[in-house]
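QA checklist item 7 of 12: single-chain prediction sanity check.
[x] sequence parsed
[x] length recorded as 237
[x] structure emitted
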Amino acid sequence: MTAQSVKRFYKDVTVQSAEGWFGIALDGRVLETPGKLALVLPQVELAEAIADEWREQGDKIIPSSMPLTKLANTAIDRTAVQREDVCEQLLGFGRSDVVCYRADIPVDLLQHQMASWDPILDWVHAQFGARLMTGQGIAYIQQDDAAMDPLRRAISESDDFRLTGLCNVAAILGSLVLALALDRGRLTQEEAFLAAHLDELYQAEKWGEDWEAADRKAGKRKELSHLARFLQFIHRV
């Protein structure tokens, strides 16, 4: 399936099951990923949601309107065969996590950051045994192995679908910490989004926000909602 729309070529969409996995069939033919692998899902609810994305297509198939399908394709075609690379990419967001970098000035922004981010860092420490260091300014903070190793173990325990969701969430939020907090139910989708964009929201309140910045945030918020839904399906067993 390419990024461009193509003419719809099927009528019926059904969910098939076999040995605890669930696939999508278009007019009886098993749906495949772009990598020509069978699109099989670990939860029937996720399979039904993806089937609905295909049912809801009109005369043309528009890939951008099927975010769950895209995530499942990524889990099967990329994450499953590049797990180590995906884990390292995800850990990279932890090594330069947005919640670890604090403002020098103004003081009230620093206070907002501390009030929002410190409880989440405390939760990460309690949950995983990872104590991340923080600093003021833009100088790079070198996180030690004692902090990163527990996070590496937690990430590596995730299946391909969950790992895919986590990596995409971290990319949007600029934070492994917030991605884990959302995944584990410590933060809601909106709480995670607001925490990740605290600095931008502060500036907007002080000086106003242009329409381009507002449009970008709206797009990120929408994408995050799809990812949060994807992770909710993955947690169902």
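[x] summary fact logged: The chain has two domains: 6-66, 83-235.
[ ] second reviewer sign-off
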